[in-house]
Specification:
483 residues; mainly alpha; Amino acid/polyamine transporter I; 20 helices; 2 strands; globular; AA/rel_permease1; transmembrane; transport; Amino_acid_permease_CS
């Protein structure tokens, strides 16, 4: 790919799969967004919407996997965008990189914020005198980010081990939660409950309200580019990285559907639980009792912490690669690698600091979490769309060992169309009446990112950034390898 190797290849096929599976994290995604789905469509959208959107995400993942096989680098999306563009390579690479960076920072921040929120819910259940405040959520999030940064500071082997543990935590945790919700309640909803449509969004159009509910699955399926970003640390990356992407999406789709069914059919008092501060937690309490609910909540919190750790790992590799090509302020700092641990330590702490900056407005804003999630999803999915779109325009695309053959362009077309449609949904109002508390800040977040990137591009970047850097011929690069 034209780079001297600085990162140690310690990720095996399972480890590469584990990073994306952990970031997607069905427990974290479903529990943090289930309440929104209860009010925007209800059971039919939660269940059938999950199936439909999962299929669309598989199209996106397949297109990304094909590109990952051809360009297995830490730069991932922005690197491949620069290589696939016929002209204006620097601009395509620049915008993709910044969308990816902001999206990943948002993902790390949002997951930490969600974990802090559920931790406070657990504390309130455990101690009657505990008072939940948004300020405490911010402080707990900051502590979580520091701990995750410390874990990422040490060897990539430690991160790989933690991600292997996280896979089993997710799978075993899902089995425990589903079993408890299936066996313990004295009664369940009838089979026909799957047709129970609900529209509490405030909008008169049931179709619009139901379409908004599709965002539950979209919120969950973010971050599978993690396998792509870990390519330079994965053995046989041209095959294992694309397989990691596809396996993570496929297994998450199946296990997530099982968890979704268990939660839906365990609902007791729909109206009361839908209005609760944390609807899935209230479902656990009503169906299983507070003691069991607290135990299961610990599983959920653990899943969120693992998810945040994997998010930060992926975020760090993107910062490392983007800086290696001189696209960030202080690039020489952020792409340096520790001689002892062989990890980009400075990039780790930059990722943690940027995530904390996104969280700080939560000190005084109740809508902070929604804004952070919007930054995460809109940034990431637009970054996914760019290289796929450029691959569609390229007639002489040279695939790697893992490819779609003649199905490459049809699959890519479906992927791009779905990304554009779902992103429109993310930027439309999500609740009515529209007030400061219900306003969707996604369009503003996207506009701010694009304005800053555009001003910076025309001011200085276009003269010094021409896309991914090539350090020389393969033999010259090999001679520069540090390990």
């Amino acid at each position: 790919m034209g780079y001297p190797r600085k990162l140690t290849r310690r990720f095996r096929a399972f480890d590469n799969f584990a990073i994306s599976f952990t970031i997607i994290n069905i427990i974290s995604g479903i529990f943090s967004s289930f309440g929104f789905g209860m009010n925007a469509g209800g059971p039919p959208i939660l269940i059938f919407g999950w199936i439909g959107v999962s299929i669309m995400v598989l199209f996106i993942g397949a297109s990304m996997a094909e590109i990952a096989s051809a360009y297995p680098t830490s730069g991932a999306l922005y690197f491949s965008a620069g290589k696939l563009a016929k002209k204006h390579k620097g601009a395509w690479s620049w915008y993709t990189g910044w969308l990816n960076f902001v999206g990943q920072v948002g993902g790390t921040a949002a997951t930490g914020f969600a974990a802090a929120t559920f931790l406070q819910a657990f504390f309130a259940m455990q101690w009657d005198t505990y008072e939940v405040t948004i300020q405490k959520t911010v402080v707990i999030t900051a502590v979580i980010l520091v701990l995750q940064a410390l874990a990422n500071t040490y060897t990539v082997q430690l991160v790989a081990v933690l991600n292997r543990i996280s896979v089993w935590w997710l799978l075993i945790g899902m089995i425990v939660i589903v079993t408890a919700l299936t066996v313990m309640p004295s009664e369940h909803q009838s089979a026909s409950f799957v047709t129970h449509f609900v529209n509490n969004t405030g909008f008169e159009s049931a179709i619009y309200g139901g379409m908004l509910g599709l965002l539950v699955t979209s919120w969950t399926f973010t971050g599978f580019d993690g396998s792509f970003h870990m390519s330079e640390e994965t053995v046989q990356a041209t095959v294992n990285a694309p397989r990691g992407i596809m396996r993570a999406i496929g297994y998450s789709a199946i296990t997530g559907l099982i968890l979704m069914l268990a939660l839906v059919y365990a609902i007791r008092d729909y109206a009361a639980e839908a209005k609760a501060d944390a609807p899935p937690v209230q479902i656990l309490i009503d169906a299983l009792g507070i003691g069991t609910a607290k135990f299961l909540l610990l599983i959920v919190i653990g899943a969120m912490l693992f998810c945040g750790l994997a998010n930060m790992t992926s975020n760090t590799r993107q910062i490392f690669a983007f800086s290696r090509d001189g696209a960030m302020p202080g690039s020489r700092w952020w792409h340096s690698v520790s001689s002892r641990t062989r990890t980009p330590v400075k990039a780790v702490w930059l990722a943690a600091a940027c995530s904390l900056v996104l969280v700080i407005p939560g000190w005084w804003s109740q809508t902070a979490f929604t804004a952070i999630v919007s930054v995460n999803v809109v940034g990431l999915f637009l970054a996914y769309a760019v290289p796929i779109y450029l691959r569609l325009k390229l007639d002489d695309f040279e695939p790697g060992p893992w490819h779609l053959g003649r199905w490459g362009k049809p699959v890519g077309t479906v992927a791009v169309v779905w990304i554009l449609l779902s992103n429109v949904l993310f930027m439309l109002p999500h609740a009515s009446p529209i007030t400061p508390a219900t306003f969707n800040y996604a369009p503003i977040a996207l506009a701010v990112v694009l304005i800053i990137a555009t001003v910076w591009w025309f001011a200085t970047a276009r003269r010094r950034f021409q896309g991914p850097v090539s350090y020389g011929r393969p033999d010259e690069v090999a001679a520069m390898d540090l390990i």
